[in-house]
C-alpha cells in the first residue's frame, strides 16, 4: 500500500477520534478510554478492509463488524457517520432520549449488525453469522472486536472453541489489548496470562500487532485473508484513551464526562496527534 494511502487512513482515524468526542460532548458521560484505543482498528476495517456500503447496508455479501465490547461503540458510530450511514450531526445526540445512537450498539442504528453490551456475547453472535455464511455459500467475513478485559468471560471461550471445531476461516477476532478494564489494570483485577498462547491452544491462527500502527494493522488484515481452514485472531497492543493526553492509561477515563475545558483540550490533543 502506498504511503499516501496509509496517511489518508491515519487522517480518517483522526476524524474518527474527533467523532468520538462529538458523541461524548460536554458534561455527558461516555466511554472514552476503550473507544479511543480501538479507533485505529475500526478505521482500518471500515475504510480499508471491509466490503460494505451505506447505499446498500443490507447487501447479503457485505462484511460484518460486531463490536463485542459494546461500550466502545462511539468509535463505530464515528466511523459509520464518516461512511455516510447517517449524518455526522447526529453524533451529538448520542445517549439522548429518542436518538438512534445509544450507549451500546442496537440494530436499529444503520450499519450496526448486533445488539451487544453484555460482554462476551459478540463472538458467539459472530460465530453464528460465520456459520450462516458457510451454509449459504457466501464469501463475506465477520470481524469481531473484543476487549481484553472481556476475556474473563467463559462464554467467549466456548465461542472460540466452536469456531475452531467448525474451521471458520471467515471469522476474525480482534482483541483491543489496552490492558485495562472498568475497575483497573487487568494484571491487578483478573490476569489471564498469555492471550496468544491460549488462542493458539484452541487452534486459532494468532498474530500480534501495534494497534496504533496503521501499516501493521492493514498488513495483518490482508494476511489473514489467505488463511484457510481455521479462524484468526489479531491481538492489537493499544493504549487506553489513545490520543487524549490526560486520559491515556487512566482508569477513571474508562467511562466519564468531560468538562468544557477538558473537551477543548481533548480536541486540541487529537488535532496535534502524530499518527
Order of helices and strands: HHHEHHEHEEEHHEHEH
What is the second-level CATH architecture?
Answer: 3-Layer(aba) Sandwich
Number of helices: 10
Using only C-alpha atoms, the radius of gyration works out to 17 Å
The total number of structural domains is: 1
Mean pLDDT: 96
- Report the strand count: 7
- What is the CATH top level name? Alpha Beta
Estimate the strand proportion: 5-15%
Secondary-structure-based class equals alpha/beta
Largest sheet: number of strands, sense, barrel closure: 5 strands, parallel
Reported by name, the CATH topology is Rossmann fold
Overall shape:
globular
Low-confidence stretches: none
Q: Which bin fits the share of residues in helices?
A: 40-55%
- Strand order in the largest sheet: 1-2-3-7-6
Please name the fourth-level CATH homologous superfamily. Thiamin diphosphate (ThDP)-binding fold, Pyr/PP domains
Task: Explain what you see.
It is a single chain. By secondary structure, the protein is an alpha/beta fold. The chain has one domain: 3-Layer(aba) Sandwich (Rossmann fold), CATH 3.40.50.970. Helices cover 40% and strands 12% of the residues. The protein is built from ten helices and seven strands. Helix 6 links the parallel strand 2 and strand 3. Helix 1 crosses helix 3, helix 3 runs parallel beside helix 4 and helix 3 packs across helix 9. The longest helix has 22 residues. 45% of the residues are buried.
Which features would summarize this protein structure in a list?
single chain; 275 residues; alpha/beta; Rossmann fold; 5-stranded parallel β-sheet; 10 helices; globular
